[in-house]
Amino acid sequence: MPQQPPTSEKTELTSLHAATCLSMTQFINGHHCPKLAHLIVHQLRLLVGHPELEHSPASREMYQKLLTHWQEVTAYLLEQQAARQPLPNYH
Question: Containing domain of residue 47, as a range?
Fold first, then answer.
């Protein structure tokens, strides 16, 4: 039986998944930037809410767990960044 071409939603989901994996790989390979962590959180939010996942609760749950983890990573990085920045000097 010939394989049907993916729907636009399926293609979008696959592209979003791939982009998220790439962002996570960049982070893991040493680019520990709060902006990149925030981008990963944004991408995971899109994945969790993607309509294609209505039929795949296990995938949605996996993305939700990743989202929770990356929200914690982002918060930690922002705390570290704030601790390193000197307080403004008002004279």
Answer: 33-82
